[in-house]
Amino acid sequence: MRKRIYWLLPDLGSARRTMDELLLARITEHHIHFVAAEGASMDGLHAANVLQTSDLVEAAQSGALIGSGLGAAGGVAAAFAINAGSPAAVVIGLAALGAMLGTWSSSMIGSAAPNRRLKRFESPIAAGQYLLIVDVPRTRITEIEQLLERTHPEAHFEGMEPNVPAFP
Q1: I need a surface site. Which of 55, 79, 88, 134 has the fewest CB within 10 A?
Q2: How far is C-alpha 7 from the geometric centre of its chain's CA atoms?
Q3: Which positions, given as ranges, span the membrane (predicted)?
């Protein structure tokens, strides 16, 4: 399990040095993400992608749940309406179809919506700061926080999320 830690860095140079130190501390690039203002230089940084900067994951999960529920309800109604020989198959089939359609449609909407967790960082990012999002193993949280505090007094710790989504 990992925890997601947020740090604000004042400029590109500080962000690059932080990236290098995290790599030397054996945090893989896959778990290090930076967010900056549109048009800002991201040379030498691992930029956050749509999975970190949008609500795509949460929207897809909600869509799957709502779609499967509506599909199952529609399956029950269809099984009674057509007097199906195997009503369970109709319910399960329509629940699966609803989950797929719900996931797809909700993820399209979620990919366009900014991540609610990053909303509080909008003004510092717009002012030219860089947001570091790093997913750290639970056993190394204190070590990584101390490393960043010691080597980057200009950086500002912005908190931690208790749970990191499984696949972004």
Answers
A1: 88
A2: 16
A3: 64-82, 88-110
Residues 161, 163, 168, CA angle at the centre, nearest 5°? 100
pLDDT tens digit sequence for 84-137: 778 888 899 999 999 999 999 988 888 777 777 778 888 888 898 999 999 888
Distance (Å) of CA 114 to CA 23, 52, 56, 61, 110: 28, 9, 9, 16, 8
Q: What is the dihedral of CA 49, 28, 60, 104, to 10 degrees?
A: 70
Specify the 3-state DSSP secondary structure of 166: coil
What is residue 162's predicted lDDT score, i.e. its pLDDT? Answer: 66
What's the chain's length in residues?
A: 168
